Amino acid sequence: MRNITIPALLAIAAVYATAANALDSGNMPVVVTPLAAKTTTASGQPITLPQKNVEVQVSSYQIAPGATLPVHKHPFPRYAYVEQGTLRVANVETGAANIYKTGDFIVEMIGQWHQATNIGTDPVKLLVIDQVEQGAKNTILKQ
Question: Would you give the end-to-end CA distance of the chain in angstroms?
Fold first, then answer.
């Protein structure tokens, strides 16, 4: 199997995302809708990737109404797509907070303590993508 680098994958995705409509191999229409293009995290940091043995981890999260996650930080990039609900993410170091709703794309802050709360009446459902050094975890809880 050939190794394709993350920048190459992003370039390929960008080419396909620029075409609003494409065709599949049977000439059937395929609609491509770009959802986000970001170069910085939620707190304005430039996005940088792990420098060795990158592993992509994909998870599904469901956060109950009123639930608050523990204070935590991520040493590597983490991205999330809000499939349902309303989430408030607060940087506990600066007090700044962002509200994310269904359809929003989140580029989480790296190396900064933060906390998320479901502030809606429905569960929050997230599709979460981490880019870490192979075998590493991407969540550190504050003790």
Answer: 42
Torsion over CA: 64, 73, 104, 80 (sign): negative
Q: Rounded to an integer, what distance in angstroms lies between the CA atom of residue 62 and that of residue 141?
A: 18
Kindly state the tokens that stand for 35. Answer: 């959802």
β-sheet bridge partners, residue 21 = 31
Q: pTM here?
A: 0.77
34 contacts: CB under 8 Å, gap ≥ 6: 17, 18
pLDDT (tens digit per residue) in 64-74: 999 999 999 99
Check if the beta carbon of residue 126 is closer than 8 Å to that of residue 57. Answer: no
Rounded Cα distance between 139 and 76, Å, is 9
The burial class, CB within 10 Å (0-12 / 13-18 / 19+), for 100 is: buried
In whole angstroms, give the CA distance from residue 120 to residue 70.
Answer: 18
The per-residue pLDDT for range 96-109, each reduced to its tens digit, is: 999 999 999 999 99
- CB atoms near residue 73 (< 10 Å): 20
